[in-house]
Amino acid sequence: MTDRLLEVPVKIFADGADFQGIAELARQPYIDGVTTNPTLMRKVGLTDYESFARAVLNEVKVKPISFEVFSDDFSEMRRQALKMHQWQENIYVKIPITNTSGESSIPLIAQLAREGVKLNVTAVLTPRQVRAVAAALDPTVPAIVSVLAGRIADTGVDPLPIMTKSVKIVSDLPKAELLWASVREVLNVFQAAACHCHIVTVPHDILKKFGELAGKDLDELSLDTVRMFHRDAAAAGFTL
């Protein structure tokens, strides 16, 4: 898997909230960074945000790592962002494009960027949102714009034209990178590379599937599938 992932012309960020998984993956040469979010943290039963973050930061000291604010109030988002920003130099603070009422986070994004906070703006789905974020960012401060391509695809819309357009929008910002988020399948990694995204976030289970299946001969995979069906039927003890 290592060689295959190193050959893909896009940065691979591991996406998850399993501490051991993060620690192990962060040590791998094919992983360029780490992201997480409150939903992933809740799924694994985490309740102490800062303790988890600081434990992860002891393992991930250099590679970029994104932690997300969890308030719905912009002033509290700012307080949390500034606190996280102080934890370690490699932190990117994730700010959602709006709050839950649909109020734009752009003023906050602009303010934090001016204050030198490295941002990862998330929950972005449209080129209009990407343009607004790009206009708010400070060109001298590193930033990530996370477009949730997988969620776009979930609506039946092909994300590739949107991602291609979004790459062009951020191209005038020398320190901004476009990230393909919400990967659903191995193909998405290659799609992200094909449209020249800078980064793709890959969940731990998709990384495992990549290692098992990426580039595999389809005739061989067909035979493996037939064998799986036969093995499972035999194990079930089916009779007619």
What would you note in describing this structure?
- This protein has 240 residues and is an alpha/beta fold.
- It has a single domain, classed as Aldolase class I (TIM Barrel, Alpha-Beta Barrel), CATH 3.20.20.70.
- Helix content is 50%, strand content 16%.
- The chain has twelve helices and eight strands.
- It has helices spanning 2-7, 19-26, 38-43, 49-59, 74-87, 106-114, 127-136, 149-154, 159-170, 186-194, 204-213, 218-236; strands at residues 11-15, 33-35, 65-68, 91-96, 119-124, 143-147, 176-180, 199-203.
- An eight-stranded parallel barrel has the order 1-2-3-4-5-6-7-8, surrounded by seven helices.
- Strand 7 (176-180), helix 10 and strand 8 (199-203) form a beta-alpha-beta unit.
- The longest helix is centred in the C-terminal third of the chain and has 19 residues, at 218-236.
- It is globular.
- The model has no long low-confidence stretch (mean pLDDT 96).
